[in-house]
Amino acid sequence: MSKNQEPQSTRNEKALSIEQWIAEVKKHNVEYQLLLETNYNTSTADPIKHPRQAAEVLWNIGANLTPHIVENLRTNADPSSAKLFDMLLSKFARIALRWRPSPVHGGNFKQGEFEVSRHTIVSNFLTEWDSGLYNHPEIELEKLRHLLTGPVSSQRIMPDKFRPISYFGIYSLPFLIREMRTNASSEVFALTISKANHPAASLYWGKHWQQFTTHAEKIQEVRNWWSAEHTKFNELHPLYEKIDAAVKALPDLPMETNAVASGASP
């Protein structure tokens, strides 16, 4: 069996995990975003214990769920599940279909527009997926490198600038980590930890000057993340090998070094 082929039992296990989570979501009248959280609080006895347990199973599998989520996008015809599969893709593959440009006017979606255009957006995404673009996005990402250069902001980083790179989700990580070898900007690091599902990402976008302010700290944090999370990518080939090689190629810097502007607030 080649490394790109997954045992049927493993595929069934992941498919069942997704199905169980979807089933639990539909049983409970709760804001659906919460049903992928495992640490939220409830004021009384927990009424949504089972969705939380189902979410923990998914998080333990991690990014390895991505091909199974994509297949569900392709084959699931239940309109009530559409939003849930969009959210799974965004959470685990870091690919947000709602961040795509509108096929009607090319701009950001206005309220209600995404639902109208969803079929076209998903169809376009699946065409890109089937073409192999996500396994080999290097040429397209190189065209976008200019977005990672320029003046470094000392204020809140605005993610809209990086949407064309964000479209590639976790598949942009090798490119971004390679960029970190010589580019210590807050923007590159913010985008990297966001695509890596790092818990500090949300805070860092808004207050990047408060933590990971040197090149060395940024590099060490990416190494720490990969050491802790690499098993959640180890069924995605060649992505796993590309991330692993990019992390290993990061330079060793003394922790006090800040040779490249880090974007810390003056």
List keywords for this structure.
mainly alpha; 12 helices; disordered C terminus; 2 domains
How is this structure best described in words?
The protein has 2 domains: 8-95, no CATH class; 138-248, no CATH class. It has 12 helices and no strands. The chain has helices spanning 8-27, 49-61, 66-75, 82-93, 113-130, 138-142, 163-166, 173-179, 186-195, 201-206, 215-229, 239-248. Residues 1-5, 40-45 and 257-266 have low confidence and may be disordered.
Number of helices: 12
Shape: globular
> What's the main sheet like?
none
Radius of gyration based on Cα positions: 19 Å
Domain count:
2
- In whole angstroms, the N-to-C terminal distance is 55 Å
Helix content: 40-55%
Question: What is the percentage of strand-forming residues?
Answer: under 5%
Mean pLDDT: 82
SSE succession: HHHHHHHHHHHH
Low-confidence stretches: 1-5, 40-45, 257-266
Total strand count, please? 0
The multimeric state of the shown protein is single chain
Secondary-structure-based class equals mainly alpha
Summarize the model shown:
The protein is an all-alpha fold.
Secondary structure elements and their pairing?
Blueprint: H1 8-27, H2 49-61, H3 66-75, H4 82-93, H5 113-130, H6 138-142, H7 163-166, H8 173-179, H9 186-195, H10 201-206, H11 215-229, H12 239-248
